[in-house]
Amino acid sequence: MRYQGPIYRPPSEADSLLIQATVGCPHNRCTFCLVYKNGPMFSIREAADIKEDILKARDIYGDGIRSIFLPAGNTIAMKTEDLCEILVFAKAIFPEIGRITVYGSSQYIHKKGPRGLKRLAEAGLSRIHVGLESGDDVILKKIKKGTDSREQIQAGKWVMDAGIELSVYVILGIGGKERTEPHAIETAGVLNQIEPDFIRLRTFVPKVNTPLLADVENGVFQMLGPHEVLEETAVLIKGIEAASYLASDHYTNYINLEGRLPKAKRRLLEQIGTALKKDAASFRPFFIGTE
Ligand code: SF4
Predict the structure, then answer these.
(1) Which of 58, 101, 159, 267 is 20–30 Å from 80 (CA)?
(2) CB of 105 closer than 6 A to ligand 1?
(3) Spatial distance between the Cα atoms of 169 and 147, rounded to a whole number of angstroms
(4) Atom of ligand 1 nearest to the CA of 145
């Protein structure tokens, strides 16, 4: 099997077979992201090469594979028919497969439209991991996400309507001190409209060689401290009415929160309340991310 450029996968895909379908990210402009800033340029692998890797994986691991993740940063941007071809092939080679997933930003999902997403669902795409980051349009513009809340809501609803599971990622603290409240409130509003299967929390950590780190260093962007992140999280969770599973399965977070909303809301808020009583020094230290 062959891999090119950085290979990232969500923590929830730790047990999945990784078959690279695309290289890099077609957007590559988010100010907080360093993953593909040094290349490689976005490209789509030949279907024949991807199939060869699938066959090679069967030779190595046998045909009992149950989940596959198709890196890299925005594999949903592949042509629908090509992605469908890969999905159908993978299902034929691995008859016990239960889940095939990709990363996809809302603007590329949106381009598929409801029909394209339905075709992908029928071909076997079972989950899309979406970096929503925020529901606040001011923040989305600042971080150069390349989409807005309206498009994110529509894309998310189409994914859900197509019968594809949706796992969305929110970055706590991505609005800094200036936008912490609108970030929490607007994000909850967007999540309520989409009602994704999973809401996954990450906490903003500035990364080397990113525009947002430069803003942190020159004081343009004021980061939240641990207590402020927790307060923001409480406002976010209070505002979520969607029946989604919330998880904070990531090393960047100050505390681990997990549960099905809205049932778990009270428990999660109590957990945050307890954490808010702790000294700032008891949380993970500030660091600059390198990956
Ligand atoms: S966060 Fe995602 S969409 Fe943005 S540049 Fe990084 S890989 Fe691309």
Answers:
(1) 58
(2) yes
(3) 15
(4) 4
